[in-house]
Amino acid sequence: LPDNLTVHEDLYLNGTPITALPDNLKVGGNLYLGGTQITALPDNLTVGGTLVLSGTAITALPDNLTVHEDLYLNGTPIRSLPDNLTVQGYLDLSGTQITALPDNLTVHGTLNLNDTPITALPDNLTVQGDLYLSGTAITALPDNLTVHGALYLGGTQITALPDNLTVHGDLWINSTPNLDTNNLPSSLVVNGEIMY
């Protein structure tokens, strides 16, 4: 593909032998790279829709990546995200090697961290959609965590819920053997149901 390429609609490259993308690529719609041998993205990549990197060998994202909808990184060997990353929709990190999230991460949709080795979340994290933490190594949540959708903690090693936790959807605490469900914090706010 040529440098400075602009595609006004979707660009489908799933399962192709492509190994690199051109510099300054702009895709107005969705960019599908699932199952390719892509290991890195070019600087100044702009995707107007969804970016699908599922099942690729991608290990890092550029600092200046812009994704206007969803970002799918599930099943990749990625270990970290760039500072100040903003994802306007769903961020799927399930089944990755992610161990920490950057400060100033903004997710305007759902954040899926299921089955990752992550051990902690950044302070003052706000997730506009659901937050999935099932099957993670997380033992504690940060103070002042706000989740505008549901919070899924099943299969975690959480021992206590933090002060000032706000969940605008359902709180799923099933299969949390280390959590004393009879001693939840008095400042806990759950607008949906608590699912044991």
Please explain how this structure is put together:
- It is a single chain.
- With 196 residues, the protein is mostly beta strands.
- It contains no helices and 20 strands.
- The strands form four sheets. A ten-stranded parallel β-sheet has the order 2-4-6-8-10-12-14-16-18-20, with no helix packed on it. A four-stranded parallel β-sheet has the order 1-3-5-7, with no helix packed on it.
- The chain is elongated, with a radius of gyration of 18 Å.
> How much helical structure, as a percent, in the residues?
under 10%
- Cα Rg: 18 Å
What's the oligomerization state? single chain
Low-confidence stretches: none
Structural class call reads: mainly beta
Largest sheet: number of strands, sense, barrel closure: 10 strands, parallel
Number of strands: 20
| Principal-axis shape | elongated
- Termini separation: 52 Å
Helix tally equals 0
Strand content: 15-25%
Mean pLDDT level: 92
